[in-house]
């Protein structure tokens, strides 16, 4: 039960409401598998939110949706297992989605495969901050969409790869939930991790008439050739340009 008396409980309520709406959606080719870690990995996700969503945070890093060896396993955005377990100290039982692809089995915090994006993301902030409390003093992390999609081979499908009508129905719900999450958190800046997240955030928050600054940093994905040449240096320079780098070392 969430009583709504804390920022964390209000934030979790927004996510539970989104889950209700997402269950009503259906998806056609090329989608064959849908994982929602906000259902089967709710325990570690709730642990993450209740531990680190404290109120008074002014900046939200926004990713797009879970990766197969990150949030899909741990329930934590960019949630590479080693950082989630050993640095963030997140605990909790992880169940299974209704249907699993044999190449993308959910093993939770026991998963031995590492997600590059998550390792780069949290590794960068561990270097800058030292301890999680320094990071979460001013920042929080969230994904626009909690669903992960896969085709028949187990290949990850991003929301832009979905059928347009299904994609727009999905993102309309996620946009609405983002506005509610931003209101619950009280942040004044959203930093999209990757161009798609940045664009969706700007579109959603502008349409809702919310006066929130929206910026972006490069996505750390190994699919991005520029990220493979030195994502940390690019991210650090961008955060300096945005005037928020000093908040990560105070």
UniProtKB/TrEMBL annotation:
Any GO molecular function: DNA binding
Protein name per Swiss-Prot or TrEMBL: Single-strand selective monofunctional uracil DNA glycosylase
Source organism, top-level taxon: Eukaryota
CDD domains, sorted: UDG-F3_SMUG1-like (cd19374)
Compartments in which it is found: Nucleus
Matches recorded under InterPro entries: SMUG1, Uracil-DNA_glycosylase-like_sf
Species in which this protein is naturally found: Oncorhynchus tshawytscha (Chinook salmon)
A single GO cellular-component term on record: nucleus
Signal peptide residues on this chain, from the entry's feature table: none
Keywords per UniProt: DNA damage, DNA repair, DNA-binding, Hydrolase, Nucleus
Family: Belongs to the uracil-DNA glycosylase (UDG) superfamily. SMUG1 family.
GO-annotated biological processes: base-excision repair
């Amino acid at each position: 039960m969430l009583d709504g008396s804390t920022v964390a409980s209000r934030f979790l309520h927004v996510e539970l409401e989104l889950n209700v709406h997402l269950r009503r959606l259906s998806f056609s080719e090329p989608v064959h598998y849908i994982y929602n870690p906000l259902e089967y990995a709710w325990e570690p996700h709730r642990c993450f939110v209740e531990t680190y969503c404290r109120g008074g945070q002014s900046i939200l890093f926004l990713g797009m949706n879970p990766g197969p060896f990150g949030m899909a396993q741990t329930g934590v955005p960019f949630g590479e297992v080693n950082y989630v377990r050993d640095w963030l100290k997140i605990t909790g039982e992880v169940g299974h989605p209704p249907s699993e692809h044999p190449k993308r089995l959910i093993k939770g915090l026991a998963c031995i495969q590492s997600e590059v994006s998550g390792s780069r993301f949290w590794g960068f902030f561990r270097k800058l901050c030292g301890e999680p409390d320094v990071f979460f003093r001013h920042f929080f992390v969230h994904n626009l969409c909690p669903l992960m999609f896969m085709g028949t081979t187990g290949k990850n499908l991003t929301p832009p790869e979905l059928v347009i009508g299904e994609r727009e129905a999905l993102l309309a719900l996620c946009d609405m939930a983002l506005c509610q999450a931003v209101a619950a958190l009280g942040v004044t800046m959203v930093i999209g991790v990757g161009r798609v997240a940045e664009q969706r955030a700007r579109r959603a928050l502008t349409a809702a008439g919310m006066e929130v600054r929206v910026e972006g940093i490069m996505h750390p994905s190994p699919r991005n050739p520029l990220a493979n040449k030195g994502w940390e240096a690019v991210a650090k320079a961008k955060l300096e340009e945005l005037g928020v780098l000093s908040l990560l070392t105070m």
